[in-house]
C-alpha cells in the first residue's frame, strides 16, 4: 500500500492532481468498497490538503462518477480496438462481448463502480453524468442490431441488444466478483475460452433474430 500511495503522490507532484485522485479512489474502493470512498481520504493518500480535491471534484459523488466515466472510456477504447477490422456482424458482436468480459476481469474495481447503485441517478439521460457509458452501450446496440441481419425484423434489433447485454454483463459480473472457480477463470487463456463458449450461444441466437429456446 505504501508503494501505491507513493505512486499517487508522485502523479500529483508531476502536476496531475485529478488523475492522482482517481487512482487513490480506485485504491480505496478496492480496499473498502464503494461505501468507503471519501474525498478527505483520497486527498490524504495523494498527499494534499483536504480542500485540494475540490478544484476538480465538488463532492464525493463527482469523484465516483469520474471513476465510472473513466472505466467506460477504457471499455470503449478496448472494444473498438477488438472490433477493428472485423466485418462479419456476428464476429463483431462476439468481439465486443469478449472484450467486455476481459475488462471486468482485469478492472474489477472500475467495473463495480460503473454499475454501482451508489452512482447518482441522472434526472434525464445517463449520458449527462457518465458520457462514456452512452458510447459503450451505443457500440453494443449497433453490433447486436447488425448481427440480427438485414432480413431480421426491426423490432428484434433492440431486443437482441438487450439480450446480448444481459448475457454478457451477467457473465462479466460473475467474473468481476470472483464468483467463478479459479480453475475455470484463473488466467486469461482459461477465462477467454469460457467467455467464447458463452458468447457463441449469444451470436447463434442473435443472428437468428429469435429468442433462445426454452
Describe this structure in words.
This protein is elongated. Helix 4 (60-83) packs across helix 5 and helix 5 crosses helix 6 (108-114). By secondary structure, it is mainly alpha-helical. The protein has helices at residues 2-13, 17-32, 39-46, 60-83, 89-106, 108-114, 131-148, 156-176, 182-185, 188-208. The model is unreliable at 7-11 (pLDDT under 50). The chain has 2 domains: 2-57, Arc Repressor Mutant, subunit A (Orthogonal Bundle); 61-208, Orthogonal Bundle (Tetracycline Repressor, domain 2).
Short account of what is shown:
This protein has 214 residues and is mostly helical. Helices cover 70% and strands 0% of the residues.
Mean pLDDT: 83
Q: Tell me which oligomeric state these chains represent.
A: single chain
| CATH homology-level superfamily of the largest domain | Tetracycline Repressor, domain 2
How much strand content do the residues show?
under 5%
CATH-derived topology of the largest domain: Tetracycline Repressor, domain 2
Structural class: mainly alpha
- Which sheet architecture does the biggest sheet show? none
Order of helices and strands: HHHHHHHHHH
Helix content: 55-70%
- Round the Cα radius of gyration to an integer and report it: 19 Å
| CATH class membership of the largest domain | Mainly Alpha
Amino acid at each position: 500500500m505504501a508503494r501505491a500511495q507513493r505512486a499517487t503522490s508522485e502523479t500529483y507532484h508531476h502536476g496531475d492532481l485529478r488523475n492522482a485522485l482517481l487512482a487513490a479512489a480506485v485504491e480505496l474502493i478496492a480496499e473498502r468498497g464503494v461505501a468507503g470512498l471519501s474525498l478527505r481520504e483520497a486527498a490524504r493518500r495523494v498527499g494534499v490538503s483536504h480542500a485540494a480535491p475540490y478544484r476538480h471534484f465538488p463532492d464525493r459523488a463527482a469523484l465516483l462518477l469520474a471513476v465510472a466515466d473513466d472505466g467506460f472510456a477504457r471499455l470503449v477504447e478496448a472494444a473498438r480496438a477488438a472490433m477493428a477490422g472485423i466485418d462479419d456482424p456476428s464476429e463483431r458482436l462476439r468481439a465486443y462481448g469478449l472484450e467486455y468480459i476481459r475488462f471486468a476481469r482485469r478492472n474489477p474495481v472500475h467495473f463495480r463502480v460503473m454499475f454501482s447503485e451508489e452512482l447518482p441517478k441522472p434526472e434525464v439521460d445517463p449520458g449527462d453524468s457518465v458520457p462514456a457509458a452512452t458510447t459503450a452501450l451505443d457500440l453494443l446496440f449497433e453490433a447486436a442490431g447488425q448481427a440480427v441481419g438485414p432480413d431480421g425484423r426491426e423490432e428484434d434489433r433492440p431486443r437482441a441488444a438487450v439480450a446480448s447485454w444481459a448475457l454478457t454483463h451477467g457473465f462479466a459480473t460473475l467474473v468481476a466478483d470472483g464468483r467463478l472457480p479459479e480453475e475455470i477463470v484463473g488466467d486469461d487463456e482459461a477465462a477467454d475460452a469460457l467467455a467464447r463458449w458463452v458468447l457463441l450461444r449469444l451470436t447463434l441466437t442473435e443472428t437468428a433474430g429469435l429468442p433462445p429456446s426454452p
